[in-house]
Amino acid sequence: MEIGAYSFGDTPLNADGTPGSTAEGIRNLFEAIVHADMQGLDYFGVGEHHTVSMPASSPGAMLAAAAGATKNIKLGSAASIISTDDPVRVYQQMATADAISGDGRIEITAGRGSSVETFPLFGFDLRDYDQLYSEKLELLMAINNAETESVTWSGSVRPAIDNLAVVPRPVKGKLPLWIATGGSPASSARAGQLGLPVSYGIIGGAPHRFAPLAELYRKSAEQAGHTGADIKISVAALGLVAPTKKEALERFYPGWHNLNVEMGQLRGWPAPDKNAYLAQADAPGAYYVGDPDEVAQRIVHLHGYMGHMRHFLQSDIGGLPHEHLLESITLLAAEVKPRVERLLAKK
Questions:
Q1: 3-state secondary structure at position 102
Q2: If residue 311 lies in a helix (H) or strand (E), which one and from where to where?
Q3: Is the peptide bond before 12 cis (omega within 30 degrees of 0)?
Q4: Angle at 188 between CA 144 and CA 43, to 5 degrees
Q5: CA gap 271, 134 in Å, rounded
Q6: How many whole angstroms separate alpha carbon 36 and alpha carbon 148?
Q7: In whole angstroms, what is the distance from residue 226 CA to residue 195 CA?
Q8: Helix, strand, coil: what percent of the chain each, to 5?
Q9: 3-state class (DSSP) for residue 75
Q10: Quick one: which of 146, 10, 44 has its CA closest to 87?
Q11: d(Cα 294, Cα 280) in Å, to the nearest integer?
């Protein structure tokens, strides 16, 4: 089981609670990735968001910088919003980061985007949501599967490509390409039919409710004739590890509250309820907030339902103090990972 972290960036808060510098948020994210590599974490994903509180708007740029400053950790987008970006540029940026890594440590996770801010920002119509994603995913796969630099593709959402070079090529010829989904059965079936690994973002409810989706994914892959190593599942979730459960709950709550207030203003969510937070932070809730023993046990419990090979947490939300993020990363690598390995070995 690979254990990791992911982030959309987290703009720090000033002493009076006002937002600090988005540039500092990006520098903190870079430091966190380097720290994760030094601590021995398996994976770090950089998601794409375009808000003041979550400023990691360019996963490719961040991963290229991180690739040059790390040695072992796998790095990926979590996710790249291909519906409103150009798959050619996404691929070029990620392949560039892969070349900088030197040993092929870069992955792409392609997502539709649960946040719709990218549509007006880049001039797309939200009504074209499905068509944009479907065709651009097809183009991204065509580029990745090309045996040479030359790519040919045509569709309706961008100009055709006729035997044109898309460079650089990845170190190992192809990049690992994942499908991101927040729980859509259609996305699970699509990933299986295409023979691509799937990454589930579980941010609410009981995580084991995703087990039927994992089964649908594997059955769809089998029916399409895909049985290789690419048929695998990862799980992304909210969570924070601290020396004690009490510390974890106290550290994570303010950021959770701040984020939910912001999302309520943007999307009409209800006012944050601390009782709901506490319920989600205990089994079988979706938040992996606790000490290393509890977090490890809950990851292994979900593995019994999902059979996933990677579990990675987003901790830095709502202005979480940077030192708490770094300590959580350290505990994930040094304490949670070996516990998960021991528990899985007993099964």
A1: coil
A2: strand 310-314
A3: no
A4: 60
A5: 35
A6: 34
A7: 5
A8: 50, 15, 35
A9: strand
A10: 146
A11: 14
* Count of beta carbons in the 10 Å neighbourhood of residue 65: 17
Stated pTM of the model:
0.97
Whether the Cβ atoms of residue 217 and residue 199 lie closer than 8 Å to each other: no
Per-block mean pLDDT, blocks of 10 residues, the chain (347 long): 98 95 98 98 97 96 98 97 97 98 97 84 94 97 97 98 98 97 96 98 96 98 96 98 98 96 85 95 97 98 98 98 98 98 95
- Tokens representing 228 are 């290789």
Torsion of CA 220, 238, 89, 105, to 10 degrees: -80
Three-class DSSP category at 226: coil
Is the peptide bond prior to 272 cis by the omega test (within 30 degrees of 0)?
A: no
Q: Which two tokens stand for residue 337?
A: 């990972």
Helical axes 129-145 vs 87-101, angle rounded to 10°: 40
Is-contact 230 213, C-beta < 8 A?
A: no
For the chain, what's the residue count?
Answer: 347
